Amino acid sequence: MPRADAIVVGGGPAGSTCAWKLREAGLDVLVLDRAAFPRTKLCAGWVTPEALQDLELDPADYPHGIVTFDELHLHWKVLTAKPATRQHSIRRYEFDDFLLRRAGARVLHHKVREIHRDNGDYVIDGEFRSKYLVGAGGTRCPVYRALFSDRHPRGSGLQTATCEQEFAYDWDDPACHLWFFDAGLPGYAWYVPKANGYINVGLGGMAEQLKHKGGHLREYWRDFVAKLKRRGLVDYDGYDPKGYSYYIRDSVGAVSDRNAYIVGDAVGLATRDMCEGIGPAVRSGLLAAHSIVTGEPYSLAGISTLSGGSFVSRLLERQFAGH
Question: d(Cα 192, Cα 276) in Å, to the nearest integer?
């Protein structure tokens, strides 16, 4: 039976970051993911300078396309604001594959189904064995499901639902646009240009609020892409959007059990104002690796619940998270 010091289930930013730091410390690490990389990953794909700093990655050294925004264009009804900020956009198809390759861990395409403990080790599907186990498999992470779901339940009111598409498009407007609460949407829509002739457009909202309104994201989607066309931003006829869901940050419950840990969307760490998940995922991967290497307690309390600290962030948190 193949054995590793640590098995990481999920090769996204949280899992690859954890694997990277464990490998730096000299551990033998195996990453299992149900997808073969590079793989398509739905995501608006903006990353903060703080996330890149955690990754020890200078934008100039990133070998794939990256777009930098020095301001965001925020729209609410007839109002528009352009706050100064530094953000970057990447394609998750490239970004995740780059981080996983950089980690230097063994990677296997494998869908995890069963996890149990045996003499202090974790055994996966009767095929793989390790002392440490890290669940980085996103919202449906099998490690979360097997070991943490009872002690770390997710609040239904904190689930977000999204509908989006990324595609090749010769965009003209290089700005990142966000539209808040259009037509009563309990969330926002976005236009995010990517390098090398790609664009991501989409919208998301709080799932429970959508249900209470009796609305569906596909209805908001039709209005949104019509708006993009009217504004001259995107004139496109090949839309085939996909959806997914994840959870924004709640109070931090059980995130470790003996030598098992959960990170990223397996915990539900997206920020409570902008629902941004890459930065918190990366930070949680670093913290889990640090705990494994040093034996110090694993805590996510230091990861910010908000993307910003302004009045607008607090207002958005109240709208999305309810307080």
Answer: 14
What is the end-to-end Cα distance of the chain in Å, rounded?
49
Pairing verdict, β 3-9 and 128-135: parallel
Question: Within 13 A of 81's CA, how many CA atoms are on the CB side?
Answer: 7
36-60 per-residue burial string, b: 16 or more CB within 10 A, e: under 16: ebbbebbbbbbbbeebbebbebeee
Report the distance separating Cα 248 and Cα 215, nearest Å.
Answer: 21
Question: CA geometry: angle at 18 spanning 16 and 19, to 5°?
Answer: 60
Element (H, E) at 16: helix 13-24
Domains in the chain: boundaries: 3-44+90-153+248-304
pLDDT digits (tens, 9 = 90+) for 32-90: 999 999 999 989 998 999 999 999 999 999 999 999 999 999 999 999 999 999 999 99
> What predicted TM-score, i.e. pTM, was given to this entire model?
0.96
Task: Give the residue from 44, 67, 40 showing the smallest Cα distance to 179.
Answer: 44
Residue 21 is encoded by which pair of tokens? 């730091």
CATH, domain range 3-44+90-153+248-304: 3.50.50.60
Longest CA span, the chain: 63
